[in-house]
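cron nightly-structures :: item 1 of 1
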Amino acid sequence: MILEVKNLSVTTKDDLGILNDVNLNVKKGEVVVLMGPNGSGKSTLANILMGNPNYKINSGEIVYNNERINDLGSDERARRGMFLSFQYPAEISGVTISNFLRTALSSIKGEKVSIISFKKLLREKMETLKIDEKFAERYLNDGFSGGEKKKTEILQMSVLEPKLCILDETDSGLDVDSLKIVGEGVNKLKNGKRSFLIITHYNRILDYIKPDRVYVMKNGKIAKEGSGKLAFELEREGYKNIG
């Protein structure tokens, strides 16, 4: 098991309850989808999994790769192989994608990655993902379309090689072509060992990515769990009869 969320209850720093007794797990090599209506707590869970300090764990635990990580900072979680794709990634003018990725990779490895070895690695990853090499010299997300931002995050995942990829509403506001970029990218990164937790409101992304299991969150709780078919049942029937 790569991730186990056990009886997790969370509040804001002002003691406003957000998550209540959440149980969820992701096995090694598995694609798990977390669905639910807006405001149900999905994105909050993603942030908590990555150690966002704006939330407080009142009870329960997060176990990653057999290690309890409740008290680990976001940087330590990233070094252990966790990755979060944000719904709205930041734009950083003046910093190229190439320099950003080399710095991130050096941080995770705990040692400076040489320019020569990094350029070789980046070239290989971009070739696999069918991304033009010139893309790496653009400033990070500066003026990017939704699809280009997602292409950047897929490239990040490929270079950093996380064990667990958490995609938070990565399909939000994307057109069909952009959804295809994300879907194809995730499918290329699946290797039987890397795991994915995909958080979404709709099932459009699932036209391109086949989930092993689906969880449904409602009102800060896991209201239902099922196979990949559950996502399409929700598309027909909505969330009103769940939980």
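cron nightly-structures :: done
The longest strand covers residues 3-12.
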